[in-house]
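Problem 12. The chain below contains 262 residues. Write out its predicted structure in C-alpha cell notation.
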Amino acid sequence: MLPDIQDQYEPRGIPLHRVGIAGVRYPTRFCDGELKQSGIATFDLAVTLEEHRRGTHMSRMVEAIHETMQELDPRSLPVALKSAAGRLDAAEIEVRIALPVATTVTSPASGRESWQASDVEIVATWNSQMSRVATTVISEVTSLCPCSKAISDFGAHNQRSSVRVAIIGRDDTAYPLDVMSIIGLIREVGSCPIYPLIKRPDERFVTMQAYEHPAFVEDMARDVSTRLREQQLEHSVQVRNFESIHSHDAIAAVQWSPDSAM
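Solution.
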C-alpha cells in the first residue's frame, strides 16, 4: 500500500483553524425552491485540524463537493456539511460558495425583457453544537442625491449603487429568505431599479422616477435594514455609491440581529 503521509502524527502540538481547498470551480445546479439555475460556482472548503494531525484529506473535499453540492440547495447545506465532516473526521467544517445568478426584468415603459445579473455568496458552517448559513446577494440600483436636487436649479446628480445584503440563518432556519426575495428587496430601495435594456421611453421613465425618489446612501442602508427587522431576520447591509461627481465613493453599513434588539 502507498504511504499516507498526511495522516502521520504531528509533534508540534499546534491546532489549525482552517485547512482545506480554495478556488474550486465546479458545475452546479442552484435550486432554493424559488430560483433554479445552472452554472459554474467557486467553492472554498475548509475544516479545523487537531494539533496531533499533520494534514487533512483534501481529495475527499473535492469528492464532497462532487457528491453533495453539485445540486446546490442552501436549505440542505447543513446536512451536506455534517456528512462531509464525518468523512473528513473533522470537528468543524465551512464552505464558501460564490456564483452569479440572473433574473428577468421588464423595462418600465417599453415592456422589453432582459436579464439582470446579481452575485450570490453563501458561507455555511457546521459543528456538533450549531449550523449557520449566511446568504449574501449583491445587486445594483440607481440613486439620486437629495442634496443635489435641493440645491440645484436644474436636475440632480445620480449614480449606480451596489447593495450587499447578507441574511444569517441558524440550525432549523438556516435559509430564512430566498435569493429572489432578497433581489426583489434590493430593487425596491434607492431611487430607481436598474434596467439593462432601456429604450427612449424607458429612459424618460427612470430619469423621472429617480428624480422623484432621491436617496442618500444612508437612506438605502436603513431602508433595507428596516424591512428585514420587520421580519426579525439577522442581517448585515452594505451600500456603496459609485459617485458620479466626486473622486471618491460613498458607503454605509449596518448589521442587526433579533438578539441585539432585546
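Discussion. The chain has a mean pLDDT of 94. Students who got a different answer should revisit the alignment rule from Section 12.3.
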